[in-house]
Amino acid sequence: MKKQLIVAMLALAATRPVPAQLAPSHEPTVAQRGSSAPAEPQGKPVARVNRAVLTDRDLVREEYAIFPYARQHNGVPAGMEADIRAGALKMIEFEELVYQEALRRGMAVAPERLQKAEVQFRRQFASPRHYNETLKTEFDRSPAVLRSKIRRSLLIEDLLKKEVEGKASVPVAEAREFYDRNPQRFQYPEAFAFQSISILPPPNPNPAQVKEARKRANDALDQAKATHSYEDFGLLAEKISDDDFRVMMGDHQAADRSKLPPAVVNTLAAMQPGQVSGLIEFDANRYTILRLKQHIERGKRKFEQVEPSLREWLKKQKTEQLRHELDARLRRNAKVEEF
Question: Could you say which of 3.90.180.10, 2.60.40.10, 3.30.300.30, 3.10.50.40 is the CATH number of the domain covering 190-297?
Fold first, then answer.
């Protein structure tokens, strides 16, 4: 679990529009009954990356970026705390390593871009008072400190774009090769798309209730047979059906044949699209009426159908691998200590 979470945190690195280091490390929360608010970070060292010291303020910012619901929960839930802390620690170490590498390469940020980023940062605050409070508590009341943090974030972003994002693109030919090598991933089973109306008696029905359920089912069948479209049947399902699909006009979308009851499969397999079935009676006097939308034969999706989503998925896989390799490469030549 911990190793998987840490890898996931590294995969998150270049995807945030504003790095965690520029977010408040802690916002006051109202403690809920039976719990206590999380302790305020005090600037205590938690790690050293070469000569740079990372503090619990950096760590808490990252924890809240990983688990944004922490504010509603008065901190990270106890069962997740150790793993999230480990992932956050590896993340802030990784970002510091990336920053130091950017400096080593002599990378810089244009003044115009830095000024624009400062304006964007200020716009995220609801009021000047909120901005000034954050400047006071997080940046030592110093616009210069804030500016240095923004410059640092932009350098991290630039190096990650160069070393990760710029190398993670997936050409059509590469996606096509993956498609051809993994045909089973793009196959789909036989399925039925259909609508249903169900009539259900109350739990433990008496004979009169059983009789009433049968009468309701027959009345429902007469009404269903009188429908002439998806909309007609769907509106009727919304009105009279007792199952949960009524809120979706009785629509079951495409259901895998192997996951449907035999009685339903046998009925649907004998129908034509648009046709309404007779009553299907299950145990305990439960009745269902079906309308077939489509019988989908087993097949394989064409490359043109899956190309956009496949290329995006492959890009994410490549991005995660590149970030992991960059982290490992930077750590080989660095001294990282955790306290």
Answer: 3.10.50.40
